[in-house]
Amino acid sequence: HRHIGSHVENVIRALHRPILIAPDDFTPPKTGVLLAYDGSASSRQAVQFLMHNPLFAGLPVHLLMIGADTLDAQAQLQWAQTQLLKAGIDTSVAIRPGDVSRGILAYQADHGLDAVVMGAYGHSRLRQFFVGSTTTALLRHCQSPLLLLR
User: Fold this and answer.
1) What is the pLDDT of residues 15-45, one digit of tens each?
2) What is the torsion angle, in degrees rounded to the nearest 10, for the CA atoms of residue 23, residue 106, residue 103 and residue 58?
3) What are the two backbone dihedrals, phi and then psi, of residue 36, each rounded to the nearest 5 degrees?
4) Which of 45, 52, 71, 136 measures 20 to 30 Å from 148, CA to CA?
């Protein structure tokens, strides 16, 4: 397990700009992007970011929601997919049950996607203390570029 340290978390929490965390041997994404989508303001912002950022131009986007397959979840994903399709972006949608960070990493590996985009630290430090943080887990375990939005 890699230790990211509290300084990295503090920087990510303090900045309200996109932050790209990349391995030493960074190469631009080629196969596709996984957008970890939960319907939050930061994940809706991520949809807009992907629509307008040249780094991701021409790449398919996989919208992934981890949780129960409910009508609300489907509606939130439908909104995101519609926005991306209007922008001419090839988009697929999936809802998977289970642990969020493990589900994201498993889906990424299963589909050969070479970048992950997600909102960062959407919960308070108190909740993170008791429940844990998806952002921190992905920072520790993701082997590909990880774009964090706040």
Assistant:
1) 678 888 887 888 888 999 999 999 888 889 8
2) 70
3) -75, 105
4) 71
Helices (H), the chain: 5-14, 41-52, 71-86, 100-111, 125-131, 134-141
Report residue 48 as tokens. 């807009």
Task: Tell me how far apart the alpha carbons of residues 149 and 16 are, in angstroms, rounded to a whole number.
Answer: 7
The H or E element spanning position 118 is strand 116-119
Residue whose pair of structure tokens reads 């949780």 in the numeric block:
67
The rounded distance, in Å, linking the Cα atoms of 26 and 22 is 6
pTM for the model: 0.82
Give alpha helix (H) positions in 53-99. Answer: 71-86
